[in-house]
Amino acid sequence: MTLLTAAALARLPVRAPSFDPATLKPGIVHLGIGAFHRAHQAVFTEDAIDAKGGDWGIIGASLQRPDVPDALAAQDCLYTVESLGTAARYRVMGVLRAALFAPRERAALLAALSAPTTHAVTLTLSEKGYCLDAASALDFAHPDIVADLAAPHSPRSAIGWLALALAQRRSNGAGPLTILSCDNLQSNGDRLGDAVTAFAARAHPGLRVTDNAFPQTLVDCIVPASTPEHRARVAAVLGLQDEASVQREDFAQWVIQDCFAGPLPAWGAVGAEIVADIAGYQRLKLHVLNTAHSALAYLGLPRGHVTVRQAIADPALAAFLDAMMDEEITPALAPLDVAAYWRTVKARFANPMIDHRLAQIAEDGSLKLPQRLFPMLLDNARHQRGFARMATIVHAWLALMATAPSRDPANAWLADWARAGGDKAKALDNPALFPHPFREDIHLRAAVMNG
């Protein structure tokens, strides 16, 4: 079957870009050109161009793997978004104008990041891509940060790339950037800005990182990993093969703190919420939706469930989550309306069109749980509120890691720990995995140990 390319744009049977992608000039660089960005921020950006115009083409870059950039480059950077609600909808996207593999195309990426016409950088890296330590500060012992400090003009990390780009922009007068973290980190803009500032102080002395803006953001859209079944549906609809297509739910939310260093696409005109304070939005998303996702993964996989919709249909798991939301998370997040938000989340989890794999969600637990779950768990323990069900999720994660480990930055330690018997007390004693209250609070410790 013929591959999707620009030659097919005029005869597509689905929604195509309203503009000529070949003439769209870039204004955004994105680091981490994975499925989530292509299904979320890229869609908002193309919709903003449709609504208000502007040269806001995206140059995307992968820092770790060449497969996505290579697949996109073979298709003139066109790809299909399959939106799954009560029915499936399809559109071919043209906003992505280049896809780079950073280690191979360093000069092109630096040129894009330092161009005067680039006004924004967005990032979707997952938690581990920020090279942070347990205190959410830049980890100067991280291998990528060590390498970048040794060779700051040949960076490996996103932090190193941003610092180099800002230094280059200082030299060429390109002006400040608005840099938007679109990952599930508490206070993601602050964490990113602090990390870049800390790195630049050592690698690029004198650089004023604070001239740039690092807004807090919240992104929400369920984007399952692409599957052969999804690719087959896209091919049947288009009559073309698309090796870069993505699938997503209909729902999408983007909340952005009103803190910018220059012009941006008209995201607010197409559904993004530009607000002064996003803290409440962030707390609900991170501590309700993301916590529930982790709970379903760590509790559902041992019960034989494969997808989120299967797990939420399990009466025991649904009752567990309902009780946790009512008795533990609602008090922790007061006065936010957890009950109303949880009702919408449950309905999204049950979407029969979406096969979001629990194994995908279970990855990187050593980074996700400290962001999603630990703040509420520790706060409830400190104030003598209920926390037994949240402790059960931690117990379930450790139990799963002892028997069926998933991809995780702590895998080397976890593998040795599992081979030695998977003693949960030894895991709780590891300060790289758990903060000190897990060792000092005997009630909290017992709750995790006993599950």
| Overall SS class | alpha/beta
The fraction of residues assigned to DSSP E strands is 5-15%
For the record, the CATH architecture of the largest domain stands as: 3-Layer(aba) Sandwich
Radius of gyration: 22 Å
Number of helices: 20
**Tell me about the biggest sheet?**
5 strands, parallel
Estimate nothing, just give the exact number of structural domains: 2
Provide the CATH top-level class of the largest domain.
Answer: Alpha Beta
Would you give an account of this structure?
With 451 residues, this protein is an alpha/beta fold. The chain has 2 domains: 6-276, Rossmann fold, CATH 3.40.50.720; 280-450, N-(1-d-carboxylethyl)-l-norvaline Dehydrogenase, domain 2, CATH 1.10.1040.10. It has helices at 35-39, 41-52, 67-73, 106-113, 143-150, 158-172, 188-203, 228-238, 279-300, 308-312, 315-333, 338-349, 358-362, 365-372, 374-382, 388-403, 411-419, 424-428, 437-440, 442-450, and strands at residues 26-31, 57-62, 79-84, 88-93, 96-101, 120-123, 178-181, 217-220, 246-249, 253-257, 273-275. It has a 5-stranded parallel β-sheet with strand order 5-2-1-6-7, with helices on both faces. Strand 3 and strand 4 form a beta hairpin. Helix 9 (279-300) crosses helix 14, helix 9 (279-300) crosses helix 16 and helix 11 (315-333) packs across helix 15 (374-382). The longest helix is centred in the middle third of the chain and has 22 residues, at 279-300. The model has no long low-confidence stretch (mean pLDDT 96).
